[in-house]
Amino acid sequence: MAVATGQAVLRITLVLVAGCVGVRFLRAGIRRLEAVFIAAGERAEVVPGATRKRITTLTGMLRTLVLVLIWAMVTVICLSQLGFDVTPIVAGAGIAGLAVGFGAQNLVRDVISGFFLVLENQVRVGDVETITFRTIVLRDLSGVVHVFPHGTVTTLANMTMEWSAYVLDVGVPYQEDTDRVVEIMRRVADEMRADSAYGSMILEPIEIFGVDDFRESAVTIKARLKTLPIEHWAVGREYRRRLKKAFDAAGVQIPFPHRSVDLVEVRRPLEILVRQAADPREAAKADDGRGRSA
Fold first, then answer.
1. CATH of 164-250, one of 3.60.10.10, 3.40.630.30, 3.40.50.1000, 3.30.70.100
2. CATH code of the domain occupying 2-103
3. Counting Cβ atoms within 10 Å, is residue 185 exposed (0-12), middle (13-18) or buried (19+)?
């Protein structure tokens, strides 16, 4: 009995050691695979680091899945060495898997949808806060965390895929020369590209689409700044600040609403009624006048 127990303990120890060694080899293999995929993807990427984010997200999900499978197998083998009949466990796992397939369809849908979201490079860590097997986690400007199951994402709009853009509408008064305004806008954008603090964030010269709209008090000129992912807000705010100063220096006014007020001359009958209301004697004279006329 003691010999059998000792052999069981030895086998369990060997299984645990094999599991630990397998996990180490697995992690090393995934890191190597990750490096190969990153090196292959970086040759054609537009934005530095974009491929690394996508591959890191995908390999992280794969690592978690394989680790769960390895330790599940180790647990089953250890139980069998301890004398437990693992046949019901394996059969129960199969039945549980079938039940999960029918009863947890949403869970399966979320996992499969999440895998393809990452595999097809639709979204990655950096575009969002976190990606798990089942959910996408977003954090808004106020710090509020929003969690979305993958299966509920039917339409995805990614503002930070490869590059971002800051679109702005610049309004100027009707009396301003729009060509002159466009030149000022280009000059300010070129100065930002030459600035060491912001030049590395801006990918291309500013795109000015031209006069886009005629509003109540302004002519609208539409433009776009193409930047590194997520940097468009910082670049756009700085560009607006510098553009305001450049407009002030060039005498370009910022439009504001105008209202025209017409002054209408007050007619005399209204003036007479006002006087009568203010002085009772005027009202009496008016009454006497009407009596004599009668």
1. 3.30.70.100
2. 1.10.287.1260
3. buried
